[in-house]
Specification:
Layout: H1 3-25, H2 28-58
């Protein structure tokens, strides 16, 4: 598994926690940061998946 997939998943989880906390306490800035972290994590996870696929085809 590519390190981008691991880091992307971690960012996604972190973003979910931030977003939930922001909603719970009514902090729209924290909620927005969480949504951005989730989006970044998803993109990084996709990039890692592509790298894994390319490595598999070369092997």
């Amino acid at each position: 598994m590519d390190k981008d997939r691991v880091e992307g998943s971690a960012k996604n989880v972190k973003g979910s926690v931030k977003e939930s906390a922001g909603k719970a306490i009514g902090d729209s800035k924290l909620e927005a940061e969480g949504k951005m972290d989730k989006a970044k994590g998803k993109v990084q996870n996709v990039i890692g998946g592509i790298k894994d696929t390319l490595r598999g085809k070369r092997a």
